[in-house]
Every structure is written in structure tokens, then in C-alpha cells.
Amino acid sequence: MTETNHIRNFCIVAHIDHGKSTLADRLLELTHAVAEREMRDQYLDKMDLERERGITIKAQAVRLAHQAGGRTYELNLIDTPGHVDFTYEVSRSLAACEGAVLLVDAAQGIEAQTLANYHLARDAGLSIIPVLNKIDLPQADPEETARELGELVGWRPEDVLRVSAKTGEGVAHLIDRIIELVPAPRGRREDPLRALIFDSTFDPYRGVVAYVRVKDGVLSSRAKIRLMAANIESEAEECGVFAPEATPAPELGPGEVGYLVTGMKDVHQAKVGDTITIAGRHRAREALPGYREPTPMVWSGMFPAEGGDYSELREALDKLKLNDAALRYEPETSQALGFGFRCGFLGLLHMDIVKERLEREFAQELIATAPNVEFHVVRDGRVTVVHNPSEMPQPGTYDHVEEPMVLATVITPSEYLGPVLDLCQSRRGELVDMKYLSPERAEVHYRLPLAEIIFDFFDQLKSRTRGYASLDYEHWGYEPADMVRVDVLLHGEPVDAFSSVVHRAKAPQYGRRMVERLRELIPRQLFDVAIQATIGSRVIARETVKAKRKDVLAKCYGGDITRKRKLLEEQKKGKARLRRVGRVDVPQEAFIAALRVDERAGDKR
Amino acid sequence: MTAGLYVHVPFCLTRCGYCDFNAYAGLGDLAPRYVRALEAEAALWAGEWRDERFASVFLGGGTPTTLEAMDLAGLLARLRDRFDVAPDAEVTIEANPDTVDEAKLSALLEAGFTRLSMGAQSFDPLVLQSLERVHSPGSVRRAYANACAAGCANVNLDLIYGANGETLDSWRRTLEETIALGPEHVSAYALTIEPATPLGRKVQAGLVPPPNPDLQADMFGLACELLADAGYEHYEVSNWSKPGFACRHNLGYWERRPYLGLGAGAHSYRGGLRWWNVRPPPEYLDMVVVGVHPIGGEERLTPQDERLEEVFLKLRIMEGIAVERVEPKAAATFIAEGLMMRRNGHLVATERGMLLLNELVLALAG
């Protein structure tokens, strides 16, 4: 155990691609935490998925030992997720630190996530060390970026640190500054144990492993522990530190960061933000502040694709949930898509990750409905939560609907300010404020409906600014909105999977697009198929797939009969793969393509 | 039940881009050996098919008329020696307009051929070009005149519609020219793109647009209309004839009567078994020469196969299929929609239904 005054707990916060993982690699190297031959890029991003996407989903904590002034310091680097979906998880990781390295690409300058992370870190009361990265790049503009960054955090530009995480230049100096500027943790051994869970994971052999920061007291292996929010007790099996691989330790003292094998089997019992204390008389009276339940913000129906198995999908979701306390799902039955699940996610990225893991790790082929937000339907002052468009009541049966809002921050080169404002305006946005970071770059705040954000907003933003704008947002409560449910009917039959809740003003445009797209996707049948978009009983858009007129083998003589029969058998197999909606046969691809939001591709920043 | 005898002649002067039949250009040197092999193969089967009465003989290809009239006459005589071919049998030979003159046709009629089936395809030079046919509209008229002059009383003209560039008007002119000649029989096929052909590859590569099914449907409708007006009966999806001139041999396929096929790639069917000869002519020759049945494969039809074949073959013809052989619910729907009708306890496809036969068959065969 290390004396608290020799401990420094810090994190690196940065916009995506500003070099956080590379800097972490250099820190590992400079402190000899990893043998040279074991070093690999993005060492801390363990999962394959993370490495490919270049993002960090799961927070990691690693202990680094560093000699300075004749003393050995224990540096705990706590890695944070870098995406708006995981803002709460970020806030808990920050709560485990006393300091933050605010890393900015000297060529890119401040981005939306730089700001979001900075504000989170500042609100968490952390000491912030501004650092310019990539100073070795020819296109870097350290002077200008240092000015912007200094202004943001209240430092003189010349004091802003400059490093190249790639070459290692300036990183040793950064370590010295971390020791100098990040306060040592406070907390006394004698006090009752309070340890913050800032992440938890499920290990198939060891059960639930919690990543913890001890605030007060001592956490020892084999302690009887109590989780204060969950209100459950368990016998700890082992505690230890990541150095960087898991290394058991007899105890974790105040200020220390490490892991705890909790002896629990369900990751939902050890939720991020909960406080661990000792069971029994010596337990802490008050939990650490800031705990909340993960709330899904985005919902989507997930159904096994053709030939897929509902029970297999359930099993896969059950397994995934072991590792993902934020994932929610409940059974859903769709007339068109059969048995599946309505799943709740923290955001689009979270949704994409879950989908991809289901497909990749569990070999599930899925049809996912277009994502939607959660609406509040208010009647006589009572609120009903609706997270499935097909459950949205018909107009006239309620007083009003409320939708979730966000406060969005966009940073854009000034030359694209017009298109950015146009986009936000067209998405029912309300300008909050706007300022220039420099003559070339502007920072805009907009209040926007979340429903608009999850509908290809990010891609639109990128395409209108040639990729230069960055976006971040925080949730901003619910507000009344004139939302209506648009249904899509095939040959008079509503297709539940195609129902959507949209703003009344946008319903005609939405309806038109859906029917036009479906007209391309639905194969011709033996009769004309009307495709209608409706609000209640009112038709707002209509297209027709004309009846098929010719489907016959022109020639069929002796030598051909076997082959022709096989052609028919093939055609029959193809038909078996169609899903029947009323009298209309719809290929699975039509569902997938129609439900895909245009070029949305998640907000993969 | 009578049987049909099919003889395949796999030689052509040139290969047409759309054709996926077992046919070869430039193998003409094999012809004399091939004729002898056909006779030898007939001998191999003579015993097993001794008790069948053949009501028809059909020489198809390829282009059978690339063979010498004498060889063809000799072949037909050998077949009559080996098998019980009815005295009044329909004996058809397929011909290319450029391969027949009056003398040859007279010789064939003399030898006992009773029916001539000619690949006219179109009377529009642009369409013939699009189909890569080497003959001209003029040579069709000439060949037809030769057939008449030779005294041929049963002539079929084959037509193809829906080639790239063909319009409804062009097709109308082709039909009118055909009707003006007055053959006893007309076959009109919607051009089908076969993937394993030069045309199929061009379509796949996007060099040639695929046929427009709606235009082909209109063309089919026009053929039905004009041919009916001219006194032709529409007795199969793609076949029309003057009364009494339906092709008995081909009806045998659709009525599921037995048939024996001789020659490279020829198919045979009897008693729930279908088998086929090896396709390459040299391989066929090698096997027959050593006295081996040149069989390339066979299949035993399962009851489901039989059912599907019965439905899809019988619905192609006027006779239709017995009501009790199909799914009643599907049948009722199709009748209500005007795609089928009832006649003498049978279900028959209407003109509109014929064009959608695949859909009908899949629903009716369950």
C-alpha cells in the first residue's frame, strides 16, 4: 500500500483521434509498466471491437510506478470512455480521479468533445492539465491551439504543455507535471470504507469484477462487503491492481485504485457509481454522491433474421447483459417480424456496439427497427412512457406528448457556420448561444430534440462541413412536442415494424420517403399493392407497386423438364423466405433496407 | 399410351448468342459418325422399348438439316426398323431457313418427314441482328415458299419476341408477316436470358438491357389477339396452331407421356424415371461406339416431383389439370381473379394466367 501523498489519480480526456490511447501507451513505456516485447499499440483497449473502432468502451485503470525526487510515486491512469452515450460512466471515472490531462490535437484544435470533457472534469473538481498533442505534425498549429486551450482553462498559452505521443517528445515532462499539479488523494485509513465503483465487468470464471477507487478506509481481500445503492452484501474474493495486468494485493488503501472480485454473479448488482463499504457495524453511513441508474435513451426492436432463433437471441442478450449493465430488453412481438426484443440503449453508439457484438460474438443475424427515443404521453396529468412507436396511442386520446431534448455543442470552422445553423434549424433546434473560439472557428449551442439527433444528424453535420465540425450533447429533460404516429400500410394492412413517431410538421416528408423507398423494395405481386403512410385514418402519402404481369417459363420441352422443375423449386424456396404481411409477400431485405436510417451509420466519432 | 421419339442433332452453322441448347458450330466433320452412332444407340434401346408405340418422331437440335438429306432419310428408315413407329406418326424436323432448298425438302418429305419446324424468329432485320441470327427475313420467305412448293402440308414457324430494340410495332409486323404466310403452326417465345450464354453475360455486364417483362406481356397479348383473329388455336403457353395441327410430339411432354431421346444430351422419360445422355458429342460417340448406353445422369421422380411436374406441365396446355389435383383455396382465388377457369372438371389458365404460370403453379402445387 502506498501513502496517499505518493498517489496521483488522473485520467486523460480528449476528443476522438486526438491521441489519448497513444499517450497512454507512452506512459506505460516510460514507467516500464509493460515489457518492451509485450508492448502493442493501444495496449489498454483490450477488446477486439474497441481496437477496430478506435474507441474505448470499458474504462480501464492501470497503475504506473514512477521515481521522482528519490521517491516512488504510484500513478493511477484511469481510462475513460470517450462518447456522449457514456457520459454517466465518464462522470464516475472522473470521480475516481483528482486530476485530468486535457489532450488536444495541435492540428485540429478544440473540438466539441474537448469542451464536453473539460466541463465534466471541471464540474468534478479535478485539476486540469492542458496538453497539446501531435506537435510533430507539419500541419500542427501549436501557437493558435495553445491560445484556444489556454483561454478555455485559464492558462497562459506558453504554459500549455506540448507533447508528441507518437514520438514520446515531452511525455516525461508531462509525468513530472502530473506529480506536481494533481493533488494527492485525501482519505483516512481509520474511516469506514467507502470505495467508488467506476466500472464493472463479468468474468466467466470469477464472476463480477468491479473497478474501484477507495475514497476512505481500507478494502481488503476477503472482506465482507456491502453495496450501498444495491443494498446487498457479499464476500469479496480478491482485490488487486492493474499493473497493467491484474495483480492481487492484500488490500487497497485510501486513494488507491484497483479491482475487486466481488463474489457476485450478476453485473447488475455492482453498478457503476455504487459505493462499496464494509458489511456490519463498521459500515459507512453515507454513500458517495452521484449514483444513478443507467437510463436508456434510444430504443430499437431487434428480431432474428430469417431462419433465426428467438431463444438463441434471448440467450445472447442474456449473456451480453452480464457485461453491460446499461442494456435493457423486453420481449416484443411484431406481426411483420415475429418474436424479438425491444432493446433500450444509452445512445446510438451503444446500440451499434450491442448489435455488432450480437452479430459477431453470438452469430446472430438481426433485423433491427429504426431507433426511436422514449416519449412521455400525458393524459390527465398522468405520464405513460412509450418506447415503441406501435404503442403510441392514436391522436385525440391524450393531452400531449413530451419528447427528450438535448443541449448540443457544435464546433465548426466559421465558413460552415451557415450550413450548421441551417441544419440545426431544420431539426427543430433552438439557438442557445454562439461564440467564436478564434476568427476561424465557432462554438454553437443548440437545444435540439434527441429524436432529431438520432436521425442521421451527425452524418448531415459532417457532410455539410466536409467533416470538420464536431458534435457533443448532453441530455436536457423532456418538453412538450407535437408528435404524431405515422403508420405504413401495405395493401391496407399496417406494418407495425414501419410505424414511427415523428413531428407533425415532418410527417408528410417522412411518409413520402417511406412509401417511395418501399415502392422500390417490394417485389411486384399478383395484384396492385398500395403503400400508404397514414396518421390515424388520414393518408399522407401513397404509392403503388403495379401487379406483376409476366412470370412464366417461355419454353418447356423434354430435355428441359428437370431443369425447369428445379428452377421452380428455387423460386419456391425464395418465396418461403418472404414474410407475409396481410396478402403481401415482403422480402427480408426490404425490411432491413426500409428500416435503415439514411446514411446514419451511428454517430461514430 | 403412346410414346415420343426424340433425336438430337447438335450441329449448327453458327451459335446464336441467346441459345443455351446443346449445340455446336464447327463440329460438322463428326456428322457421318454421329448418324451411325444414333443408329447404334437406337439398336441399344430397341429391346427395352419394343412394346411402346411411337406416335411421333422429332429431329431437333441444333440444326438437323445440316445433315445430308440422304443421311436423314436413312436414319428415319433405321428408326422405323428398330421401333414401332405408327404409320401415321407425326415426323418433325427442325430447320434453319438457310439450310433448306426445295430439292432437299422434297427428299425429306419423300423419306417420310411430315412436319417442318423452321426457326424464323422475326421478320424485322434489326431484331434478327440483335438475336445474332445470320439469316434475313427474305430467306425465311424463300424457305417457306420452298416448303410449300415441295408439298409440305404442316409447317411451323418459330418466333422470338422481346429482344433488345424490338418494339410492339415491330412485333406486330412480324406477326402480320407470319400470318400472311399462313403456316399451320406458330411458336412464339418470350426471349429468356440464360446466364450461361454470350447474351446472358452481356446482360450481366450491363452491356445489353434485360427484356422488359411488361413489354413482353404486351407482346404476348398481341400475339394472342392477332393469331386468334387469324384462326389459330392457342393450345400451349407459347404455341398456336390451325385446328388439328397441334404438335403431337410436344404435347407428349406436357401430357407426361413417355419419350425416348437419342443423341448427345437427349433426355428420356418413362415410368417415373428420367435420364439424359452425356452432352459433348465426342463423348457421346465414344460411348456408343463401344456399345455402352451414353447416359450422363438420371433421376427417379419423387411423388412431390411428379406432382409439381404434373401441375406445371398440364397448366401449360388447354387440357389443364384435374381440379382435385391442386390446392382448392389457391384455385378459388385464381379463378376469382380471372387467372384461371374451370372447364370439364379441369382448371385451365386464362391468357393472363398463362403469363403468370410460375406463380400459379407454386400456389397450386402446395
CATH superfamily membership of the largest domain in chain A: P-loop containing nucleotide triphosphate hydrolases
Spatial extent as radius of gyration of chain B:
20 Å
What's the total number of strands of chain B?
17
Contiguous low-pLDDT stretches of chain B (5 residues minimum) are: none
With helices defined by DSSP (H or I, 4 residues minimum), what is the helix count of chain B? 14
Strand order of the largest sheet of chain B: 9-10-8-7-6-5-4-1-11
- Measure the end-to-end span of chain B: 28 Å
User: Mean pLDDT of chain B, rounded to whole units?
Assistant: 95
**CATH architecture descriptor of the largest domain in chain A:** 3-Layer(aba) Sandwich
CATH fold label of the largest domain in chain B: TIM Barrel
Concise overview:
The complex is a heterodimer of chains A (605) and B (366). With 605 residues, chain A is α+β, with helices and mostly antiparallel strands. Chain A has 14 helices and 34 strands.
Describe the structure.
The complex is a heterodimer of chains A (605) and B (366). Chain A is of the alpha+beta class. Chain A folds into 5 domains: 178 residues, P-loop containing nucleotide triphosphate hydrolases (Rossmann fold, 3-Layer(aba) Sandwich), CATH 3.40.50.300; 85 residues, Translation factors (Elongation Factor Tu (Ef-tu), domain 3, Beta Barrel); 72 residues, Alpha-Beta Plaits (2-Layer Sandwich); 106 residues, Alpha-Beta Plaits (2-Layer Sandwich); 112 residues, Elongation factor 4, C-terminal domain (Alpha-Beta Plaits), CATH 3.30.70. Chain A is built from 14 helices and 34 strands. In chain A, the strands form 7 sheets. In chain A, strands 11-10-16-7-8-15-12-13 form an 8-stranded antiparallel beta sheet. In chain A, strand 18 and strand 19 form a beta hairpin. Chain A is globular. The C terminus of chain A is likely disordered. Chain B has 366 residues and is α/β, with parallel strands linked by helices. Chain B has 2 domains: 252 residues, TIM Barrel (Alpha-Beta Barrel); 61 residues, no CATH class. Helix content of chain B is 40%, strand content 24%. Chain B contains 14 helices and 17 strands. Chain B has a 9-stranded mixed beta sheet, sandwiched between helices. In chain B, helix 1 crosses helix 10. Chain B is globular. The two termini of chain B are 28 Å apart. The relative contact order of chain B is 0.12. Chains A and B meet through helix 13 of A and strand 1, helix 8, helix 9, helix 11 and helix 13 of B.
